[in-house]
UniProtKB/TrEMBL annotation:
Pfam families: His_Phos_1, NUDIX. Residues 6-131 form the Nudix hydrolase domain. This is NUDIX hydrolase. Keywords: Hydrolase. It comes from Actinoallomurus oryzae. SMART domains: PGAM. CDD domains: NUDIX_Ap6A_hydrolase. Signal peptide: none annotated.
């Protein structure tokens, strides 16, 4: 954006539930503008975009969403500042909506009726994009462990090297951020730094951590050569999974997954510490992939 003003960041979702003749989507009415749109809102300072999407959809619709595949972002200018709104498909039903000054009505409508009700063409385009793909997808997450200090300063077994203070804070923040995609089986390298990275998430989701030498570095058996194949088999099981591993193995996992799903691999699949890929899969095909830095 150059030297111009910082962009306004916002996020929201096409929130849907099964209907009698296909998906029904939630639209919100803003009395201030007398318009109908999808639930969305601005990010708080320092807030991860995934947490923004969950919080804003929950606040505006009364439904806590579970995010699915990524939808196209919208970029435009507002009050002489660039604005970007990131969107996801999201599941949700029920909830506890209470009218307020910002949102006074929420209605669930079949897709054709929702398209007619929407006030803005860019929202109608977003709805058509949602309707053109699978409503429900399964997430597979590849996570690189958070900060574990300087390897050269650690005198013990490298497999036992723990997270440092920054890494522990990152792991705690990741727990809530990754929860945006709902529950997933948790697999981890057998090293302390990877297990500690996913421990807060596992506690948040009340699930077990399964250590797997295939996702580990520096093992006596050299089992890390099996990382890509092991991840491909997890995807074939059709159940959401999160794998915490090492930076050296991330490209192998992502590239093998894309090969298995018949999709081109990203040019640069690498991740920074605490970063993660989310692969959204439906019917054995890769529907969308998103990378987040943390």
């Amino acid at each position: 954006m150059g030297d111009g003003p910082d962009p306004i960041r916002a996020a929201g979702a096409v929130l849907w539930r099964p209907g009698e003749s296909g998906p029904e989507v939630a639209l919100v009415h803003r009395p201030r503008y007398d318009d109908w749109s999808f639930p969305k809102g601005k990010a708080k300072d320092g807030e991860h975009v995934l947490r923004t999407a969950v919080r804003e959809v929950w606040e505006e619709s009364g439904v806590r969403p579970v995010l699915g595949r990524r939808l196209p972002a919208r970029e435009y200018e507002k009050e002489r500042r660039p604005k970007r709104v990131d969107y996801w498909a999201a599941t949700g039903d029920g909830g506890d909506f209470r009218p307020n000054e910002e949102i006074d009505r929420v209605e669930w409508l079949p897709v054709p009726e929702a398209e007619r009700r929407l006030s803005y063409e860019h929202d109608a385009d977003l709805l058509r994009e949602f309707a053109s793909g699978p409503s429900r997808t399964t997430p597979y997450i590849v996570l690189r462990h958070t900060s574990a200090g300087d390897k050269r300063a650690w005198d013990g077994d490298d497999g036992l090297r723990p997270l440092d203070e920054r890494g522990r804070a990152g792991a705690a923040a990741l727990a809530e951020t990754l929860a945006a995609y709902g529950p997933a089986r948790v697999f981890s390298s057998a090293t302390a730094r990877c297990v500690e990275t996913v421990l807060p998430y596992a506690a948040r989701m009340s699930t077990d951590i399964r250590t797997d030498w295939a996702f580990s570095m520096g093992t006596p058996m050299g089992a890390s050569k099996e990382a890509g194949g092991r991840f491909a088999r997890l995807i074939g099981e059709g159940v959401a999974a999160l794998v915490c591993t090492h930076g050296e193995l991330v490209p192998e996992l992502v590239e093998r997954a894309c090969e298995t799903l018949g999709a081109p691999a990203p040019e640069d699949p690498r991740l920074p510490k605490g970063g993660f890929w989310v692969l959204h899969v439906a019917d054995g095909a890769l529907v969308s992939a998103e990378r987040h830095r943390f």
